[in-house]
Design a protein that fits this description.
Blueprint: H1 5-16, H2 22-29, H3 33-45, E1 65-73, H4 78-86, E2 91-97, E3 102-109, H5 112-123, E4 129-136
Antiparallel strand pairs: 1-3, 1-4, 2-3
Helix pairs in contact: 2-3
Domain HTH asnC-type: 3-64
Protein name: HTH-type transcriptional regulator LrpC
Keywords: DNA-binding, Transcription, Transcription regulation
Length: 149
């Protein structure tokens, strides 16, 4: 699909502040409010904009430990394990990666004691997992808030 510079500018502006009104966006791109509304609806209809959301600072809500996991899974169990882990409230995101049935998972918990409980009682309890490797984030320099154009 082809998108022009105005579509790209609208997406950049919405990535920076998803609460901008159609009027504010129209002023930034030099179109009418109605034209901007139509373009945004078109981007939504085509699936370019999946949803509008808010980015929450997890640490401000007491989730002070952020860890990434590489989880190897028995191939026949991959879908079930992925869904089981995706349903866990501590799992912020989970992706299937290239390699031997590997899942990449981001987990947010309150403290290291909760991380230990998550690993020992929730993660290791899932049938089909063959290997787990983890890394704890020490400092965040940049976080994904959407695709940058």
């Amino acid at each position: 699909m082809k998108y022009d510079d105005i579509d790209k500018k609208l997406l950049e502006e919405l990535t920076e502040d998803g609460r901008l009104s159609y009027v504010e966006l129209a002023e930034k791109v030099g179109l009418s409010r109605v034209a901007v509304k139509d373009r945004i609806q078109n981007l939504k209809d085509k699936g370019v904009i999946e949803k509008f959301t808010v980015v929450i600072n997890s640490e401000k809500f007491g989730k002070n430990v952020s860890a990434f996991f590489e989880v190897d899974v028995e191939p026949k169990q991959l879908q079930q394990v992925a869904q089981n882990l995706a349903d866990n409230p501590h799992v912020a995101s989970i992706y299937q990666m290239t390699g031997p049935s590997t899942l990449h998972m981001h987990v947010l918990v309150e403290d290291f004691q909760k991380l230990e409980v998550f690993i020992n009682e929730e993660l290791y309890a899932v049938t089909g997992i063959t290997r787990v490797e983890s890394s704890v984030i020490l400092k965040r320099f940049k976080s994904r808030t959407g695709f940058k154009l």
